[in-house]
Amino acid sequence: MHIYVIKRILMLVPILLGTSIIIFTIISFTPGNPARMILGERASAEAVFELNTKLGYYDPLPVKYVNYMKNALHGDFGNSYRTGASVIDEIKARFPTTLLLAVMIVTMTAVLSIPLGVFVALKKDTFADGIAMIIALIFTAMPSFWLGLLLMLLFSLHLDLFPATGSDHFINFILPSFTIAVISIAQIMRMTRSSMLEVIRLDYIRTARAKGASERIVIWRHAVRNALIPVITTMGINFGYALGGSVFIESVFGMTGVGTLLLVAIRSKDVPLVMGCVLFISLLFSIVTLLVDLSYGIIDPRIKAQYGKKV
After folding, report:
1. CA angle 67, 44, 46 (to 5 degrees)
2. In which domain, by residue range, is 179 found?
3. Concatenated DSSP letters of 221-242
4. Are 80 and 37 in contact (CB under 8 A)?
C-alpha cells in the first residue's frame, strides 16, 4: 500500500504544475498594472515604468512564469501588490478561519446526514421517506448564498440570535457553517439512502440475517460500513472545497478566510497573492483526496487487500 501512497504523492507534482500554468496564464492576460496598484494613481509614469521593470512585468510570459516558479520552489511566493505583506503570511493569517469553517461544515454534515440517510432507506416508500426526499431536493437546488441571506435575515435581524458578519468568535461560524451544511446534508442523505438500498439487497446481508444476527448489527456493522464508500468520497470533496475557501459564504457573512482573500486578490489583480492562494488550495485539495482514498482501505478490507496485492 505504501507504493500506492508514493505514486499518489508524486501525482501532486503535475497537478500543481498544470494548475499554476493555467492560472498564471489567465491572470497575465487580464488587464491591470501592478506598479500603478502599488504606487497609487498619482505616481509618475517614470516611477511606474521603473517598478514594472523591476517586477518583470514587461518580460515575456514564459520568462515571468519560470522566474515565479524558481522563487516559489525556494519558498518565496512574493509579496502582495495590495498590502506589501508576504503571501505566505497573508494565507497563514486567514487559513485558521477557513479551517474552522470547513471542520464545522463536515462535522454537521456527517453527524446528521448519515443517520438520516440510513433511516429513510429503512423507511423506503413510506410517508417519512417521501417528505425527507422532498425536503432534500429543495435544499439541494437552493443556492448557498441565497440561503445564507435568508438565515441572516431570520436569525440575525429578526431573532437576534447570531451575529450576521465577522469571524472573531466561535458563534460567528454557526450561521455560515450551517448554511453550507444544510445543502451538504441534503446531498449526502440522498446518496446514503441510495447506497444503503443497494447494499441491503446483497447476499451477505441476507446471510448475516440468516445466521441470527440482530437487525442493529446487520445494519450498522455490515450494511452501513460498505455503503459509506461513495458517501466518504463526496464528503471528502466537499471538505476540500470548504478548505479552499467557501468564497460566496465568506463574502456574504463578511468572514476573513482564504476564500475572501482570493476574491479580493482576483479583483485587484494581485498576481502573487492569487497564485499563492490557488497553489495552496490545490495542494490542500489533493491531500484531502489522497486521505479519502486511503480511508477506503479502513472501511472496506477488500480494498486494502487489493492494495496489498499490488504491492
Report:
1. 50
2. 87-310
3. IIIHHHHHHHHHHHHHHHHHHH
4. no
Q: Quickly list H helices, 200-310.
A: 203-210, 215-217, 224-243, 247-252, 258-267, 271-299, 301-310
Indicate whether 68 belongs to any domain.
no
Residue 244 lies in a domain: yes
In whole angstroms, give the CA distance from residue 71 to residue 12: 19
The CA-atom distances, in angstroms, between 62 and each of 58, 155, 194, 254 are 11, 51, 49, 37
Per the rule left: phi > 0, alpha: psi between -120 and 50, beta: everything else, 254 is left
Query: Is 262 within the bounds of a domain?
Result: yes
Domain count along the chain = 1
Q: Is the pTM of this model over 0.85?
A: no
Q: Is residue 25 part of a domain?
A: no
CATH number, domain containing residue 200: 1.10.3720.10
Measured CA to CA, the distance from residue 187 to residue 184 in angstroms comes to 5
Mean pLDDT by 10 residues, the chain (311 residues): 73 84 84 77 83 82 87 85 86 89 88 88 85 87 84 86 82 87 88 85 78 78 77 81 74 84 83 87 83 70 56 44
